[in-house]
Amino acid sequence: MASEDYVCLNIECRYHSSQPFPVCPKCGHRNTFVTQSNMRVRGCIGGALSLGVSCFLLFIAVFMSVVIANKRTAMRVNDVAALLLLYGLGAVFLIGGISLMIGGGRWLIGSLVSFGRRGGSSRIRRR
Fold this sequence. Notes:
three-stranded antiparallel sheet, 3 strands, elongated, single chain, mainly alpha
């Protein structure tokens, strides 16, 4: 009987082991080990939810585009900003959903988590 591979749930760690430990030897988190197949199922569920949110946002954005295009008045800045926000959020959720379903989404989630910690807009405030 082949032993299952266990993985730490911590997004920054993902330590692999042939047995679950009560505490991860790499990052020190408690009770974070799940099987590799469990991780794949979690990724597929998260990806499907993210794709659903993305489809909803993109549907609303396309609907708004059609409504705005059919108006007889000129477009305002608020209309353009709302459309850009909806299309941008829809694209981020779409990329994130595909990433989660294919490979666990480690690069996307890790970059979003580290963006707030390592700088981003906080560098501007330090001046």
